[in-house]
């Protein structure tokens, strides 16, 4: 089972790297080839993620549930955390409760999509895409909720200034 989690987080790390490459679009391709990677590991989860060195590892405290929190200079945020669940709560119930919390606590929260039974790596879970405003700035977020081998729920979150990925696709 730990092997499955390792595969999942490797896929997530590659996704993070892909998003970082997207942020370099429009720059000289030689610059993209020259950047170096840092590696983050948590042996307890069998987790290893490689990310560009210009991204900043902000926090990792597995005991509090924050497994990986990394920011890029372009204001992207990539986070993996253990979800605080109630006894007997299902993944769908947690997903719905989280959506209620977001709508009550985020300014201009708008859910763009909620997909049940989506796949990320070898995990099946729920994917929520939404926008919100914080301190006058608009953000777009993708959150993937899944149940891991140890019956804990985890969330993979990617947060970016709204429209920034579209601007860099060329």
Q: Determine Rg (CA atoms, Å).
A: 16 Å
Strand order of the largest sheet: 3-4-5-9-8-7-6
Order of helices and strands: HHEEEEEHEEEEH
Unreliable spans are 1-11, 13-34, 165-170
- By CATH, the topology is Protein Transport Mog1p, Chain A
How would you classify the helix and strand content by structural class?
Answer: alpha+beta
What is the overall silhouette? globular
Q: Which homologous superfamily in CATH is the superfamily?
A: Mog1/PsbP, alpha/beta/alpha sandwich
CATH class assignment: Alpha Beta
Count up the domains: 1
Helix content: 25-40%
How many strands in all?
A: 9
Q: What's the CATH architecture name?
A: 3-Layer(aba) Sandwich
Characterize the largest beta sheet: strand count, sense, and whether it forms a barrel: 7 strands, antiparallel
What is the number of helical segments per DSSP (H or I, 4+ residues)? 4
Write a structural description.
- The chain is an alpha+beta fold and 170 residues long.
- It has four helices and nine strands.
- The strands form two sheets. The protein has a seven-stranded antiparallel sheet. Strands 1-2 form a two-stranded antiparallel ribbon.
- It is globular and about 40 Å long.
- The model is unreliable at 1-11, 13-34 and 165-170 (pLDDT under 50).
